[in-house]
From TrEMBL:
Lineage: Bacteria, Bacillati, Actinomycetota, Actinomycetes, Kitasatosporales
Gene source species: Streptomyces collinus (strain DSM 40733 / Tue 365)
Stored InterPro entries: AhpD-like, AhpD_core, CMD-like
Residue span, Carboxymuconolactone decarboxylase-like domain: 22-98
One annotated GO molecular function: peroxiredoxin activity
Name used for this protein in its record: Carboxymuconolactone decarboxylase-like domain-containing protein
Domain of life: Bacteria
Amino acid sequence: MYTDPDDLKRARSVGANAPVEFAAWRAFQDAVDREDGAVPRRYRELISVAVALVTQCAYCLDVHTAAARRHGVTAEELAETAFVTAAVRAGGTLAHALMADRLYEEHGH
């Protein structure tokens, strides 16, 4: 199996091999996970789930789905977030198709 939830336990050992970078990443993550931002934590977790769906990171999906539930996100909100994410991702595909159409024409000249 390529992904294993136990891999998340390796973060500290991987970080020990790059302590400066790991400390900076942790500080950034702590800022993003703060409770006192203008964006409520439950929305931050829904955003994180949406990004995890797009990047297809199983570990992020696991961590942020659990955090979303802890912060009061409902199953209905999670489902709607998934469909909003899918629609926006599809829009990105269409946007690139429009560019491909233009490039196709330009390469014909």
